Amino acid sequence: MLPSLYISHGSPMLALEPGASGPALRALAASLDRPKGIILMSAHWETQSLQVSSAAQPSTWHDFRGFPPELYQVNYPAPGDPELASRVARLLNDQGLPATLDADRPFDHGTWVPLSLMYADATIPVVQVSLASQGPAMQYRIGQALARLRGEGYLLIGSGSITHNLRELDWQATHDAAQPWAQAFRDWVVQALTDNAQSALLDYRQQAPHAARNHPTDEHLLPLFFAYGAGTAFSVAHTGFTLGALGMDIYRFD
Predict the structure, then answer these.
(1) Closest to 3 measured CA to CA, from 244, 246, 248, 237
(2) 3-state helix, strand, coil in the chain (%, to 5)
(3) What is the pTM assigned to this prediction?
(4) What are the pLDDT digits (tens) for 236-253?
């Protein structure tokens, strides 16, 4: 059975400057059986109602501005899987989570940046599940509803960032230096996941130290709950910070 994963995808520049995350993602992918397909929830697809991407050949969307020209030349031509997308939607609907198909959704950078480092050949079909707006408990239920697919050879991934306050990045920080408030939040999450403290995690905004400072908005943490809902045996695959406050952790749930 494949695990579910939570990946901190950092800046879009990770695709060109992978730092320590690149080898960690490549090693993680190499340690797993090759997936039949990937089902991914990205922080960069927020919707009011739950949607599933069903395009046969999604385009690569450079959903950012102000980066070097070469980044806009990166293409990740992985196929979609309309049949898998329909099954994912059925599983969600069967669990009381109404979901519809979106045949036009491209791959946003929360999808193609980490996958370009894990599976550079871009031949594994990828289906995205949107980040519906109902908070941690909703994403946890989505993960639970799709967990059975792990046993059928599908890899479930939540893609975000364990800390994400772009206004407080320190552009002079040394590579692994972390702001104390960012480190404290990251450590609280890891301990809560280690303890499988579900109620505390779902209420992280009230219980975790510096929660609002680390996540002024919570879209980059919410995919964690998707991965957590799909598998509970937690371990840390990679840890680190860039720019003082951007956590680059990678977690797996077996």
Answers:
(1) 237
(2) 40, 20, 40
(3) 0.96
(4) 999 999 988 999 999 999
Could you tell me which of 18, 104, 23 has the C-alpha nearest to residue 61? 104
Number of domains in the chain: 1
Share of the chain above pLDDT 70, in %: 98
Structure tokens that stand for 71 in this block: 């980044």
Domain hosting residue 171, numbered range = 4-253
pLDDT tens, residue by residue, 145-168: 999 999 999 999 999 999 999 888
Instruction: Report yes or no: 226 and 128 within 8 Å, Cβ to Cβ.
Output: no
Strand partners for 154:
37
Torsion of CA 170, 173, 175, 177, to 10 degrees: -90
For residue 192, the surrounding DSSP H or E stretch is helix 180-194
CATH number assigned to the domain comprising residue 51: 3.40.830.10
CB-CB contact of 235 with 6 (8 Å):
no
